[in-house]
Write a structure and sequence with these properties.
CATH topology of the domain at 59-184: AhpD-like
Distance between the termini: 29 Å
Number of strands: 0
CATH class of the domain at 59-184: Mainly Alpha
CATH architecture of the domain at 59-184: Up-down Bundle
Number of helices: 10
Helix content: 55-70%
Structural class: mainly alpha
Radius of gyration: 17 Å
């Protein structure tokens, strides 16, 4: 079985140190995900850039949270679901949205539910979403630009969730109070 180190600035490859230093500066700590990614500096840099770019999209804080958490929950993200629960709180996203995403229950608005449904279709169908499902998404008030923004969010989440699955990244202490496990009834479907 492979074991993946969770690097610190001191233990990381030289090429990863600037990104870890920036992470420490931005977070006041080095998230375990970043420490795990540091073994492959281009991955860490690509992830940080993808995150920065996703944050710059036209999606609201609530909509970004729906994209992230929909993918995290679908991916059974033991690390990312708690982390994005805390991030949603920092972004002042309504707890009702976060809980509905974590528990796979209906979201408070039809528009957010349309976003979750389309995001799920996009990742499950590997981008081959039906014309009818795409039109339903657009009819809910979204745009073609939003479709491309979801692709960016999915790329970011693929990097983080897959890294965490392989590295078995421990949930950061700051997010442990948001620990999460996939609902057994939903997981069995």
């Amino acid at each position: 079985m492979a074991t993946f180190p969770i690097h610190t600035i001191a233990s990381a490859p030289e090429a990863a140190k600037p990104a870890l230093e920036a992470s420490f500066k931005n977070n006041g700590r080095i998230p375990g995900l970043h420490g795990a990614m540091a073994a492959a500096p281009p991955l860490l840099e690509a992830y940080a850039f993808a995150h920065q770019q996703f944050m710059a999209t036209s999606l609201s804080a609530e909509e970004k949270t729906v994209v992230w958490q929909t993918i995290n929950v679908e991916s059974n993200g033991h690390y990312c679901v708690p982390a994005h629960t805390g991030i949603a709180k920092m972004m002042k996203v309504d707890d009702a949205i976060t809980e509905a995403l974590r528990n796979e229950t209906p979201l408070p608005t039809a528009k957010l539910e349309a976003l979750r449904t389309f995001t799920l279709a996009s990742i499950r169908d590997l981008g081959f979403v039906s014309d009818a499902d795409t039109q339903a998404f657009l009819d809910a008030g979204f745009t073609e630009t939003n479709i491309l923004e979801i692709i960016l969010g999915a790329a970011q989440k693929l990097m983080s969730n897959y890294t965490n699955h392989f590295a078995k990244t421990p949930v950061d202490q700051v997010f442990q109070k948001f620990a999460w496990e996939k609902n057994d009834a939903v997981a069995a479907e």
